[in-house]
# Entry
Amino acid sequence: MKALKSTLVASRVRCAGESRLELGGESFVPDGSKAYFEFWCAHSFPVITTDGTAVYPSVVDRSHRTMLHQVINLGHLMEAYGTSAQDRVLGSVVGIEFPEMPEGGWGLPGSVEASPGIHGVGVLHRACKGVPRILEMQHSGERAWAVSMEVEFYRSECAFLVRRDSLSKLGCSEQGPDEFKAAGWSVYDYEGAPPMLQNTLVNGMPVVATEHQGSVVFLAGGLRGNVHFSGLALTLMGKEPTAKAGRFTASMDLPTDPEKALPHLARVLELIK
# Structure
């Protein structure tokens, strides 16, 4: 069964006024009908989200292209997700890249700083409801927005990481691969994991219970699987500590009347906190 969407969230974005973004040899130039922003996210383990989830470098490498052309929405407010009766579409992802695989293949990064991640560019269409007001708020400093990925995966392809000093209390014993054992972790495929280990998830969802975070990590896509990057949201909070957003570019002819741009903004913001 395909898992419900698990959210990884990037850091705050800044509005840099009218300028171009460059990615993969392509230029993205804002105008009166569209704006752009860049972002970095999906950094691999040892980066761990506040939900206790992580990804392995080769999984992101195989999967990162699925993010291209996916929808950008406001705060995950989409009818298909059961979060809103009305889709709040703002734009789409128009550029994506991931570092080249090193010679010898991907391995476990030695540090958080060495973890590879996705670099992308999103477009916001100013004809979409809310976009002019979002740009005005960003440019004026009234509101700094964050980005949040929407990720799907099959549980059968996922895995658990268990810290060495927690193995016995979770009914586990030390096992490879060697690169994880050397770093103090053991890897268990989701479907073959002991019941005590599977029960560390909150109601079976890809969220590690608070009392087990730091000792158990849910590895989306495992070591050999894939994930599907199905969307991106502008929202208010972040879960991935190393994710970040760069320039947020827009032409300078921003609206000054918020009533024409984003009615009921306060109610929308309350919904996505």
